[in-house]
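Many groups now describe folds with learned vocabularies. In that spirit, our science desk offers one protein's residues alongside their backbone shape tokens.
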Amino acid sequence: MQRGYLGYFAANWPPKRPRDAAQGGGDMKAAIVSRWTREPLLSVELARSLRDLNAVFLELEGVVAARLAALSPAQRAIIANCPYALFDLRFHDHEHWRRNLRGAGGCCVAETPAGEQRVVAFVRVVLFYAWHLATTARHEASLLFGIPESTADVFAETSPAQLMSIAAMQTVNLSARWRHCEAYWGSLADAAERADRANLRRVQLSGLQLVAAARLP
């Protein structure tokens, strides 16, 4: 996993943008989905890092649904390989991050109970990753994590030390993305259990539609 992160941060790739939203919500969603069916939306390094993050998230007991936790490592790996984050950290909530990030001191890091250390470590990586995208690749921050422009501005004004100081407090906000969309997660688990790659691709396409819908004004 570490190679993916380091490779991504060392990579120098230009952001790839779909057609402007001004052309209409339907056009924007169609552009994102159509493009993914024809070519990768992400650079190789970025896709690898995202896959690694998704894979770690799917291994976090007590955070992911029991059905997902019961999948084999190979089945979870199949699910993890998609062009967007499968987890959420309230990135859509601008006011939440405005309050937390602008109030972060960055002078100390709260102690973490032993049983939660892996979750906190994951949240720290996600926060740093989100900060990096917010400062270098706004389009990818929106596509991968659902971070709106206003929230990306707040992240970009924050130091890594401030992010680390609030990571432990943010674990309560870690959840599966679209956790209330049972149809999405049920279909994703079905496809993985049956090793049905064609159906998995259809489910991932539906996820891209959810990503695009969330970006509409």
Notes: Confidence is low (pLDDT under 50) at residues 1-25, 32-39. Strands lie at 87-88, 175-176. The first helix runs from residue 2 to 10.
